[in-house]
Protein backbone atom coordinates (compact mmCIF):
# COMPACT_ATOMS: atom_id res chain seq x y z
CA UNK A 1 0.00 0.00 0.00
CA UNK A 2 1.25 3.52 -0.79
CA UNK A 3 1.02 5.72 2.27
CA UNK A 4 0.03 9.31 1.44
CA UNK A 5 2.15 11.91 3.25
CA UNK A 6 0.12 15.02 4.15
CA UNK A 7 2.15 18.00 5.35
CA UNK A 8 0.04 20.16 7.69
CA UNK A 9 2.83 21.60 9.80
CA UNK A 10 1.86 25.16 8.98
CA UNK A 11 -1.91 24.70 8.90
CA UNK A 12 -4.77 22.55 7.68
CA UNK A 13 -4.72 21.72 3.96
CA UNK A 14 -8.43 21.58 3.16
CA UNK A 15 -8.27 19.24 0.18
CA UNK A 16 -5.94 16.80 1.94
CA UNK A 17 -8.20 16.94 5.02
CA UNK A 18 -11.19 16.05 2.82
CA UNK A 19 -9.19 13.15 1.44
CA UNK A 20 -8.31 12.02 4.99
CA UNK A 21 -11.97 12.19 5.99
CA UNK A 22 -13.04 10.09 3.01
CA UNK A 23 -10.35 7.49 3.79
CA UNK A 24 -11.69 7.20 7.34
CA UNK A 25 -15.33 7.09 6.25
CA UNK A 26 -14.54 4.29 3.83
CA UNK A 27 -12.82 2.19 6.51
CA UNK A 28 -9.15 3.19 6.07
CA UNK A 29 -6.39 4.21 8.50
CA UNK A 30 -4.98 7.74 8.97
CA UNK A 31 -2.19 8.66 11.41
CA UNK A 32 -2.50 12.15 12.87
CA UNK A 33 -0.90 14.47 15.43
CA UNK A 34 -2.43 15.15 18.84
CA UNK A 35 -1.03 17.22 21.71
CA UNK A 36 0.23 14.04 23.45
CA UNK A 37 1.55 11.59 20.81
CA UNK A 38 0.61 10.67 17.22
CA UNK A 39 -2.52 8.51 16.91
CA UNK A 40 -3.53 5.89 14.34
CA UNK A 41 -7.17 6.59 13.50
CA UNK A 42 -10.05 4.52 12.14
CA UNK A 43 -13.84 4.94 12.22
CA UNK A 44 -14.71 3.79 15.75
CA UNK A 45 -18.25 2.78 14.83
CA UNK A 46 -17.07 0.48 12.01
CA UNK A 47 -15.86 -2.83 13.54
CA UNK A 48 -13.88 -3.83 10.45
CA UNK A 49 -12.05 -0.51 10.23
CA UNK A 50 -10.87 -0.62 13.83
CA UNK A 51 -9.84 -4.24 13.29
CA UNK A 52 -7.28 -3.00 10.76
CA UNK A 53 -5.59 -0.96 13.49
CA UNK A 54 -4.70 -4.14 15.36
CA UNK A 55 -3.06 -5.76 12.38
CA UNK A 56 -1.14 -2.62 11.31
CA UNK A 57 0.30 -2.21 14.82
CA UNK A 58 0.65 -5.89 15.67
CA UNK A 59 -1.45 -5.12 18.75
CA UNK A 60 -3.08 -7.81 20.93
CA UNK A 61 -6.84 -7.72 20.26
CA UNK A 62 -7.74 -7.63 23.98
CA UNK A 63 -6.14 -4.17 24.30
CA UNK A 64 -8.94 -1.61 23.84
CA UNK A 65 -8.73 1.62 21.84
CA UNK A 66 -9.52 5.21 22.84
CA UNK A 67 -12.42 6.83 20.95
CA UNK A 68 -11.61 10.45 20.02
CA UNK A 69 -14.39 13.01 19.73
CA UNK A 70 -14.41 16.68 18.67
CA UNK A 71 -17.49 18.02 20.47
CA UNK A 72 -18.99 17.46 23.87
CA UNK A 73 -22.42 16.29 22.76
CA UNK A 74 -20.76 13.30 21.05
CA UNK A 75 -20.26 11.82 24.53
CA UNK A 76 -23.93 10.95 24.82
CA UNK A 77 -23.85 8.75 21.72
CA UNK A 78 -21.05 6.43 22.85
CA UNK A 79 -21.49 6.50 26.65
CA UNK A 80 -24.49 4.69 28.16
CA UNK A 81 -24.96 7.61 30.51
CA UNK A 82 -22.84 10.66 31.24
CA UNK A 83 -22.16 11.04 34.98
CA UNK A 84 -21.84 14.47 36.56
CA UNK A 85 -18.13 13.78 37.17
CA UNK A 86 -17.57 13.43 33.41
CA UNK A 87 -19.14 16.81 32.75
CA UNK A 88 -17.03 18.40 35.46
CA UNK A 89 -13.82 16.90 34.06
CA UNK A 90 -14.72 17.82 30.47
CA UNK A 91 -15.34 21.39 31.56
CA UNK A 92 -11.97 21.52 33.32
CA UNK A 93 -9.70 19.60 30.92
CA UNK A 94 -11.24 19.12 27.44
CA UNK A 95 -10.04 19.49 24.83
CA UNK A 96 -6.91 18.11 26.45
CA UNK A 97 -4.73 15.19 27.53
CA UNK A 98 -7.36 13.37 29.62
CA UNK A 99 -9.15 10.11 28.71
CA UNK A 100 -12.28 9.06 30.63
CA UNK A 101 -13.56 5.49 30.98
CA UNK A 102 -17.36 5.27 30.97
CA UNK A 103 -19.94 2.54 30.41
CA UNK A 104 -20.33 2.13 26.65
CA UNK A 105 -23.50 2.47 24.60
CA UNK A 106 -24.62 -0.13 22.04
CA UNK A 107 -23.17 2.07 19.27
CA UNK A 108 -19.61 1.13 20.23
CA UNK A 109 -18.52 -2.24 18.84
CA UNK A 110 -16.84 -4.67 21.23
CA UNK A 111 -13.93 -4.91 18.78
CA UNK A 112 -13.01 -1.34 19.79
CA UNK A 113 -13.26 -1.99 23.54
CA UNK A 114 -11.41 -5.31 23.55
CA UNK A 115 -14.63 -7.00 24.60
CA UNK A 116 -15.22 -4.70 27.60
CA UNK A 117 -18.55 -2.98 28.35
CA UNK A 118 -16.72 0.28 29.04
CA UNK A 119 -15.23 2.74 26.55
CA UNK A 120 -12.28 5.14 26.75
CA UNK A 121 -13.08 8.62 25.41
CA UNK A 122 -10.91 11.66 24.78
CA UNK A 123 -11.21 15.07 23.08
CA UNK A 124 -7.68 15.97 21.96
CA UNK A 125 -6.36 19.55 22.04
CA UNK A 126 -4.93 19.82 18.54
CA UNK A 127 -6.50 21.66 15.58
CA UNK A 128 -5.48 18.99 13.04
CA UNK A 129 -6.85 16.18 15.23
CA UNK A 130 -10.16 17.98 15.83
CA UNK A 131 -10.58 18.73 12.10
CA UNK A 132 -9.80 15.10 11.22
CA UNK A 133 -12.30 13.72 13.74
CA UNK A 134 -14.99 15.95 12.25
CA UNK A 135 -14.04 15.03 8.67
CA UNK A 136 -14.02 11.33 9.55
CA UNK A 137 -17.54 11.25 10.99
CA UNK A 138 -17.01 12.29 14.62
CA UNK A 139 -15.83 9.08 16.33
CA UNK A 140 -12.23 8.07 15.67
CA UNK A 141 -10.68 5.09 17.44
CA UNK A 142 -6.97 5.76 17.84
CA UNK A 143 -4.17 4.11 19.76
CA UNK A 144 -0.68 5.56 19.60
CA UNK A 145 0.64 5.22 16.02
CA UNK A 146 3.63 2.99 16.79
CA UNK A 147 4.31 -0.66 16.18
CA UNK A 148 3.18 -2.44 19.35
CA UNK A 149 6.06 -2.56 21.86
CA UNK A 150 7.96 0.47 20.48
CA UNK A 151 7.93 3.92 22.11
CA UNK A 152 4.93 6.06 21.12
CA UNK A 153 5.62 8.39 18.16
CA UNK A 154 6.18 12.07 18.86
CA UNK A 155 6.91 13.04 15.22
CA UNK A 156 5.36 12.01 11.90
CA UNK A 157 8.73 10.53 10.93
CA UNK A 158 8.47 8.11 13.89
CA UNK A 159 5.10 6.99 12.47
CA UNK A 160 6.65 6.55 9.02
CA UNK A 161 9.50 4.48 10.50
CA UNK A 162 6.97 2.03 12.01
CA UNK A 163 3.93 2.02 9.72
CA UNK A 164 4.90 3.16 6.21
CA UNK A 165 3.16 0.97 3.62
CA UNK A 166 0.74 -0.42 6.22
CA UNK A 167 -1.66 2.54 6.51
CA UNK A 168 -3.38 4.89 4.05
CA UNK A 169 -2.16 8.31 5.18
CA UNK A 170 0.19 10.05 7.61
CA UNK A 171 -0.60 13.66 8.52
CA UNK A 172 2.52 15.56 9.58
CA UNK A 173 1.68 18.23 12.16
CA UNK A 174 5.24 18.68 13.46
CA UNK A 175 6.54 17.61 16.87
CA UNK A 176 3.93 17.08 19.58
CA UNK A 177 3.69 19.36 22.61
CA UNK A 178 3.50 16.92 25.54
CA UNK A 179 5.17 13.71 24.36
CA UNK A 180 3.60 11.18 26.77
CA UNK A 181 0.14 9.67 26.36
CA UNK A 182 -2.98 11.09 28.02
CA UNK A 183 -3.92 10.55 31.67
CA UNK A 184 -6.62 7.86 31.89
CA UNK A 185 -9.26 8.15 34.62
CA UNK A 186 -11.83 5.41 35.20
CA UNK A 187 -15.19 6.92 36.20
CA UNK A 188 -16.83 3.51 36.55
CA UNK A 189 -14.87 3.11 39.82
CA UNK A 190 -15.84 4.80 43.07
CA UNK A 191 -13.79 6.80 43.90
CA UNK A 192 -12.52 7.46 40.34
CA UNK A 193 -9.22 5.72 39.61
CA UNK A 194 -6.24 6.80 37.52
CA UNK A 195 -5.27 3.92 35.23
CA UNK A 196 -2.39 5.72 33.49
CA UNK A 197 -0.58 8.87 34.68
CA UNK A 198 -0.11 11.70 32.16
CA UNK A 199 0.21 15.47 31.87
CA UNK A 200 -2.96 15.94 33.97
CA UNK A 201 -1.65 14.95 37.40
CA UNK A 202 -3.61 13.25 40.18
CA UNK A 203 -3.48 16.50 42.17
CA UNK A 204 -5.11 18.39 39.29
CA UNK A 205 -7.87 15.73 39.17
CA UNK A 206 -8.38 15.87 42.95
CA UNK A 207 -8.75 19.64 42.73
CA UNK A 208 -11.89 19.25 40.64
CA UNK A 209 -13.25 15.83 41.74
CA UNK A 210 -12.19 15.48 45.36
CA UNK A 211 -11.29 11.88 46.07
CA UNK A 212 -9.27 10.16 43.30
CA UNK A 213 -6.94 7.19 43.71
CA UNK A 214 -4.17 5.58 41.67
CA UNK A 215 -4.62 2.08 40.28
CA UNK A 216 -2.63 -0.03 42.80
CA UNK A 217 -1.61 -2.25 39.87
CA UNK A 218 0.52 0.58 38.44
CA UNK A 219 3.05 0.70 41.18
CA UNK A 220 5.10 -2.26 41.75
CA UNK A 221 5.85 -5.70 40.65
CA UNK A 222 3.37 -7.21 43.14
CA UNK A 223 1.61 -9.74 40.90
CA UNK A 224 -1.52 -9.73 43.08
CA UNK A 225 -2.29 -6.23 41.73
CA UNK A 226 -2.65 -6.22 37.94
CA UNK A 227 -3.13 -2.88 36.21
CA UNK A 228 -6.77 -2.38 35.20
CA UNK A 229 -5.99 -0.84 31.78
CA UNK A 230 -5.13 -3.86 29.63
CA UNK A 231 -2.42 -1.88 27.82
CA UNK A 232 -0.53 -1.12 31.03
CA UNK A 233 0.36 -4.74 31.65
CA UNK A 234 2.52 -5.08 28.55
CA UNK A 235 6.20 -4.17 28.62
CA UNK A 236 5.63 -1.13 26.42
CA UNK A 237 8.19 1.39 25.30
CA UNK A 238 10.87 -1.25 25.39
CA UNK A 239 14.14 -0.08 23.88
CA UNK A 240 16.41 -2.71 22.29
CA UNK A 241 19.20 -1.84 24.73
CA UNK A 242 19.20 -2.80 28.38
CA UNK A 243 18.00 0.32 30.24
CA UNK A 244 18.82 1.09 33.88
CA UNK A 245 17.43 4.04 35.83
CA UNK A 246 19.84 5.48 38.40
CA UNK A 247 18.29 7.37 41.32
CA UNK A 248 19.66 9.14 44.37
CA UNK A 249 21.20 12.51 45.14
CA UNK A 250 22.22 14.45 42.03
CA UNK A 251 25.93 14.16 42.70
CA UNK A 252 25.75 10.42 43.47
CA UNK A 253 23.73 9.81 40.30
CA UNK A 254 26.21 11.73 38.14
CA UNK A 255 29.16 9.85 39.63
CA UNK A 256 27.48 6.44 39.31
CA UNK A 257 26.36 6.93 35.71
CA UNK A 258 29.79 8.20 34.72
CA UNK A 259 31.44 5.12 36.28
CA UNK A 260 28.91 2.66 34.79
CA UNK A 261 29.30 4.23 31.34
CA UNK A 262 33.08 3.91 31.48
CA UNK A 263 32.79 0.29 32.61
CA UNK A 264 30.39 -0.52 29.76
CA UNK A 265 32.68 1.10 27.22
CA UNK A 266 35.70 -0.78 28.52
CA UNK A 267 33.70 -4.03 28.04
CA UNK A 268 33.34 -2.99 24.39
CA UNK A 269 29.69 -1.95 24.70
CA UNK A 270 28.07 1.14 23.22
CA UNK A 271 26.51 3.19 26.00
CA UNK A 272 23.74 5.79 25.87
CA UNK A 273 23.03 8.25 28.70
CA UNK A 274 19.76 10.11 29.28
CA UNK A 275 20.39 13.22 31.37
CA UNK A 276 18.74 16.50 32.26
CA UNK A 277 20.08 19.68 30.63
CA UNK A 278 21.44 20.63 34.02
CA UNK A 279 23.77 17.58 34.15
CA UNK A 280 24.43 16.63 30.53
CA UNK A 281 27.75 18.42 30.23
CA UNK A 282 29.18 16.63 33.27
CA UNK A 283 29.33 13.24 31.47
CA UNK A 284 32.60 12.54 29.71
CA UNK A 285 31.92 9.03 28.38
CA UNK A 286 29.07 7.54 26.34
CA UNK A 287 26.51 9.02 23.94
CA UNK A 288 24.81 11.68 26.04
CA UNK A 289 21.32 12.92 25.18
CA UNK A 290 19.77 15.73 27.11
CA UNK A 291 16.05 15.13 27.57
CA UNK A 292 15.27 18.65 28.74
CA UNK A 293 15.37 20.87 31.77
CA UNK A 294 14.15 19.86 35.22
CA UNK A 295 13.04 23.49 35.58
CA UNK A 296 10.76 23.06 32.54
CA UNK A 297 9.50 19.51 32.91
CA UNK A 298 7.46 19.42 29.70
CA UNK A 299 10.73 19.57 27.74
CA UNK A 300 11.63 16.22 29.32
CA UNK A 301 8.33 14.50 28.46
CA UNK A 302 8.55 15.93 24.92
CA UNK A 303 11.90 14.32 24.17
CA UNK A 304 11.91 11.05 26.12
CA UNK A 305 10.40 8.69 23.51
CA UNK A 306 12.40 10.26 20.68
CA UNK A 307 15.64 9.62 22.58
CA UNK A 308 14.70 5.96 23.18
CA UNK A 309 14.03 5.60 19.45
CA UNK A 310 17.31 7.30 18.57
CA UNK A 311 19.24 4.92 20.82
CA UNK A 312 17.49 2.01 19.04
CA UNK A 313 18.59 3.41 15.68
CA UNK A 314 22.16 3.86 16.92
CA UNK A 315 22.17 0.28 18.18
CA UNK A 316 23.43 1.10 21.68
CA UNK A 317 23.83 -1.89 24.00
CA UNK A 318 23.13 -0.30 27.37
CA UNK A 319 21.39 2.90 28.48
CA UNK A 320 21.73 4.63 31.84
CA UNK A 321 19.09 7.21 32.65
CA UNK A 322 18.76 9.78 35.37
CA UNK A 323 15.45 9.76 37.21
CA UNK A 324 12.97 12.60 36.48
CA UNK A 325 10.62 12.92 39.43
CA UNK A 326 9.34 16.36 38.47
CA UNK A 327 6.25 17.83 40.22
CA UNK A 328 3.47 17.59 37.61
CA UNK A 329 4.51 15.24 34.78
CA UNK A 330 7.09 13.28 36.80
CA UNK A 331 4.66 10.45 37.62
CA UNK A 332 3.98 9.93 33.91
CA UNK A 333 7.61 10.25 32.85
CA UNK A 334 8.76 7.75 35.49
CA UNK A 335 5.89 5.33 34.73
CA UNK A 336 7.03 5.13 31.08
CA UNK A 337 10.73 5.06 31.93
CA UNK A 338 10.34 2.34 34.58
CA UNK A 339 8.40 0.17 32.12
CA UNK A 340 11.02 0.75 29.44
CA UNK A 341 13.62 -0.33 31.99
CA UNK A 342 11.66 -3.45 32.91
CA UNK A 343 11.74 -2.17 36.53
CA UNK A 344 15.55 -2.08 36.52
CA UNK A 345 16.37 0.71 39.00
CA UNK A 346 19.65 1.31 40.78
CA UNK A 347 19.62 3.41 43.97
CA UNK A 348 22.89 5.16 44.75
O1 LIG B 1 -2.64 10.32 24.43
C1 LIG B 1 -3.25 9.30 24.12
O2 LIG B 1 -4.11 8.77 24.87
C2 LIG B 1 -2.95 8.67 22.76
C3 LIG B 1 -3.45 9.65 21.67
C4 LIG B 1 -3.32 9.09 20.29
O3 LIG B 1 -4.76 10.04 21.95
N1 LIG B 1 -3.55 7.39 22.61
C5 LIG B 1 -3.09 6.30 23.29
O4 LIG B 1 -3.74 5.12 22.98
O5 LIG B 1 -2.17 6.34 24.06
P1 LIG B 1 -3.19 3.68 23.36
O6 LIG B 1 -4.07 2.74 22.66
O7 LIG B 1 -1.75 3.62 23.03
O8 LIG B 1 -3.45 3.54 24.87
C6 LIG B 1 -4.77 3.35 25.35
C7 LIG B 1 -4.74 2.78 26.73
C8 LIG B 1 -4.32 1.33 26.76
O9 LIG B 1 -3.50 1.11 27.90
C9 LIG B 1 -5.66 0.60 26.93
O10 LIG B 1 -5.52 -0.65 27.56
C10 LIG B 1 -6.44 1.60 27.79
O11 LIG B 1 -6.07 2.84 27.26
N2 LIG B 1 -7.89 1.45 27.64
C11 LIG B 1 -8.65 1.71 26.54
N3 LIG B 1 -9.95 1.43 26.76
C12 LIG B 1 -10.04 1.01 28.04
C13 LIG B 1 -11.13 0.55 28.87
N4 LIG B 1 -12.39 0.51 28.41
N5 LIG B 1 -10.83 0.18 30.15
C14 LIG B 1 -9.56 0.23 30.62
N6 LIG B 1 -8.49 0.65 29.88
C15 LIG B 1 -8.73 1.02 28.61
MG1 LIG C 1 0.14 2.97 22.92
Give a verbal description of the structure.
The protein is an alpha/beta fold. It has 2 domains: 4-219, DHBP synthase; 242-347, Rossmann fold. The protein contains 11 helices and 16 strands. It has an 11-stranded mixed β-sheet with strand order 1-8-2-3-7-4-6-5-9-10-11, with helices on both faces. It has a 5-stranded parallel β-sheet with strand order 14-13-15-12-16, sandwiched between helices. Strand 2 and strand 3 (39-43) form a beta hairpin. Helix 1 (14-25) crosses helix 5 (127-135). The longest helix has 17 residues, at 250-266. The N and C termini lie far apart (51 Å). The model has no long low-confidence stretch (mean pLDDT 95). Threonylcarbamoyladenylate binds next to strand 5 and strand 6.
Strand and helix layout:
Elements: E1 4-7, H1 14-25, E2 30-32, E3 39-43, H2 47-57, E4 66-68, H3 75-78, H4 84-93, E5 98-103, E6 118-122, H5 127-135, E7 140-141, H6 156-163, E8 169-172, E9 183-186, E10 193-196, H7 202-209, E11 213-214, E12 242-247, H8 250-266, E13 271-276, H9 277-280, E14 287-292, H10 298-314, E15 318-322, H11 330-340, E16 345-347
Parallel strand pairs: 1-8, 2-8, 4-6, 5-9, 10-11, 12-15, 12-16, 13-14, 13-15
Antiparallel strand pairs: 2-3, 3-7, 4-7, 5-6, 9-10
Residues 143-144, 152 line the site of magnesium ion.
Quick take:
The chain is α/β, with parallel strands linked by helices. Helix content is 32%, strand content 20%. The chain folds into 2 domains: 4-219, DHBP synthase; 242-347, Threonylcarbamoyl-AMP synthase, C-terminal domain (Rossmann fold).
Amino acid sequence: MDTIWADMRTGIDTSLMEKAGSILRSGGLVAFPTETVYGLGADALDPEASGKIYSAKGRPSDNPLIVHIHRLDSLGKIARHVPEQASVLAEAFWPGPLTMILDKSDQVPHSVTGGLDTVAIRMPDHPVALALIEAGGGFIAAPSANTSGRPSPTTAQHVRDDLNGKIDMIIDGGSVGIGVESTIIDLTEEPPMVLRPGFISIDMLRNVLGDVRMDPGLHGEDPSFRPKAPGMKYRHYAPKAELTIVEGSESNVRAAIDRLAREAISRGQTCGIIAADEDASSYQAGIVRSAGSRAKEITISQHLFGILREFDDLGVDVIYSESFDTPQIGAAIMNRLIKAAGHHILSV
